[in-house]
């Protein structure tokens, strides 16, 4: 937790369904009146700027931080490495933060695994806050003391997440 905002990290191998699970969780949380923030860790280089636009030109000129603001949203582009803790410190006025990725580190982890991928959990079960899977052997309500949920049980997982809020 940071500033008493609960933070959970959804972890899985690429192509497993992290984004889909987070979409379901955000929808469930919003339906229950919770304000949410999501941070996606991208292992690849990404760019939200578009060549030729003013913000792209500012960044290309060497700006360390470029900000784009409209009446309905804002984006801060840190054109340098930024630690997760620094990003988390900037997030306010939400009830819960969900990250996608961040397998290492001390955040409570929601591990996701799908049988069709043939890949195991991305972290050992004893490092998990919860497990979401359709894999055989995890169909009990708990696995080694860790709560388990099916792929379509975003409501149950949300119940667990908001139980402490």
Question: How would you describe this protein?
Answer:
Helices cover 23% and strands 25% of the residues. It starts with 6 loop residues before the first strand and ends with a helix. With 165 residues, the chain is α/β, with parallel strands linked by helices. Helix 1 packs across helix 4. The protein has a single domain, classed as 3-Layer(aba) Sandwich (Rossmann fold). The strands form two sheets. The chain has a seven-stranded mixed β-sheet with strand order 2-5-1-6-7-9-8, with helices on one face. Strands 3-4 form a two-stranded antiparallel sheet.
Described by strand count, sense and barrel closure, the largest sheet is: 7 strands, mixed
The name of the CATH topology is Rossmann fold
- Residue fraction in strands: 25-35%
- Average the pLDDT over all residues and give the rounded result: 89
Q: Compute the gyration radius: what is it?
A: 18 Å
What is the name of the CATH class? Alpha Beta
C-alpha end-to-end distance: 12 Å
N to C succession of SSEs: EHEHEEHEEEEEH
Query: What overall geometry do the principal axes of the alpha carbons give?
Result: elongated
Number of domains: 1
Fraction of residues in H or I helices: 10-25%
What's the total number of strands?
9
Strand line-up in the sheet with most strands: 2-5-1-6-7-9-8
SS class: alpha/beta
Concise summary:
This protein has helices spanning 18-31, 54-61, 84-90, 154-162, and strands at residues 7-11, 36-40, 65-69, 74-78, 96-100, 109-113, 128-133, 142-143, 146-149. The protein is of the alpha/beta class and 165 residues long. The mean pLDDT is 89.
């Amino acid at each position: 937790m940071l500033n008493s905002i609960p933070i959970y990290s959804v972890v899985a191998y690429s192509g497993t369904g992290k984004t889909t699970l987070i979409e379901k969780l955000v929808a469930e949380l919003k339906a229950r009146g919770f304000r949410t923030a999501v941070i996606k860790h991208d292992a690849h280089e990404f760019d939200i700027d578009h060549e030729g636009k003013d913000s792209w030109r500012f960044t290309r000129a060497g700006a360390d931080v470029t900000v784009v603001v409209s009446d309905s949203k804002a984006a801060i582009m840190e054109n340098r490495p930024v630690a997760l803790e620094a990003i988390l410190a900037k997030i306010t006025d939400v009830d819960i933060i969900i990250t996608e990725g961040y397998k290492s580190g001390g955040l409570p982890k929601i591990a996701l695994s799908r049988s069709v991928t043939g890949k195991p959990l991305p972290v050992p079960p004893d490092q998990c806050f919860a497990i979401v899977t359709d894999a055989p052997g995890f169909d009990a309500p708990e696995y080694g003391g860790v709560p388990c949920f099916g792929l379509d049980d975003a409501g149950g997982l949300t119940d667990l997440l908001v139980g402490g809020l």
